[in-house]
Automatic annotation (TrEMBL):
Database matches in InterPro entries: Sin3_C (IPR031693)
Protein name: Paired amphipathic helix protein pst1
Residues annotated as domain Sin3 C-terminal: 1-246
Gene source species: Choanephora cucurbitarum
Domain of life: Eukaryota
One Pfam family from the record: Sin3a_C
Length: 296
């Protein structure tokens, strides 16, 4: 904020020097009649209006001039744009208080020390920034918010971003996205990120599910299936020679007796003559006897 205000006055000074008609001009008539006020003659604008204002700020901070005189002198130099620095003392005082608070706060001191130690690194990688973030979280605590400050040297601007728990310190690369996908896929508890669970079909048939199967404690499972995921297409390839094994013991059911089998076959509701009338049944039985007695 302080820089932006001073920078605007500096730009106005450069514009005034490029266009002399914009600067202060003495009214010759008023001077000849003795009506010209010379109380601003002590303001030295030979080095530019901006430099003159900086000198007035120094005098104001040293107590050589009071608030009213400071405002009058700056208004004389920059007219209506002088309001930008009328409260410069309060702004600087607020900045000093913030700096003082940082220097006495143990967490802030540790963060500054961490920043200085990593500032000397020649290059930054995603892993380096991840480690830096973990160290910062250890200092401020996991419940506190973290902010990322970026400064663009080309356009000279600074941005401040609130970082979430899963946000990257740098823009994720294709390799970072691939590693995140594989890690999410290997998480058997949570759904894989980027997959719409509602569009997926069940893996097992409902008829094979036996919630109260007492033989489940006797099953044999061996997970040795290996696969690889293509980094570009995310296509999955299974490794030849690897497999998963699932074996469930066969249940031994008692076989029906001959009488039960005969009863089931001859039944008019479940047997071969189901839905047949009496005449049709007799005709088919007679035809079957002929075939059995005279085989082809």
């Amino acid at each position: 904020m302080l820089y932006s205000r001073l920078n605007k006055l500096r730009a106005l000074d450069a514009e005034m020097q490029a266009n002399p008609h914009m600067g202060k001009r003495v009214n010759k008539v008023a001077r000849d009649l003795g009506l010209y006020n010379n109380r601003f003659e002590e303001i030295d604008t030979s080095k530019g209006c901006y430099q003159a204002v900086l000198e007035m700020i120094d005098r104001f901070f040293d107590g050589d001039i009071d608030q009213q005189v400071f405002e009058e002198h700056t208004r004389y130099v920059f007219v209506t744009d002088a309001y930008l620095i009328f409260t410069i003392d309060k702004l600087v005082h607020s900045m000093v208080k913030q700096i003082q608070a940082i220097t006495v706060d143990p967490k802030s001191v540790e963060l500054i020390r961490l920043f200085r130690s990593d500032k000397g690194l020649e290059s930054m990688s995603p892993r380096t920034l991840s480690v830096y973030r973990l160290k910062a979280e250890d200092i401020v605590g996991s419940d506190e918010n973290l902010y990322k400050i970026n400064f663009n040297n080309e356009v000279k601007n600074m941005t401040i971003q609130l970082i979430g728990k899963d946000d990257y310190m740098l823009e994720p690369t294709a390799e970072d996205k691939y590693e995140d996908y594989v890690a999410s896929y290997m998480d058997w508890v949570n759904t894989t990120e980027g997959i719409d669970a509602s569009s997926m079909k069940p893996t097992f048939l409902t008829r094979n599910l036996r919630p109260q199967d007492e033989h489940l404690n006797k099953i044999f499972v061996q997970s040795k299936l290996q696969y690889k995921i293509d980094q570009d297409t995310y296509h999955m390839y299974y490794i030849v020679g690897s497999e998963d094994v699932f074996v469930r013991p066969t249940l031994h059911h008692s076989k029906p007796s001959g009488s039960q089998w005969q009863e089931w076959v001859e039944s008019s509701t479940t047997g071969w003559s189901k839905n047949l009338d009496k005449d049709t049944k007799q005709a088919m039985e007679e035809e079957a006897r002929k075939l059995l007695s005279n085989p082809i």
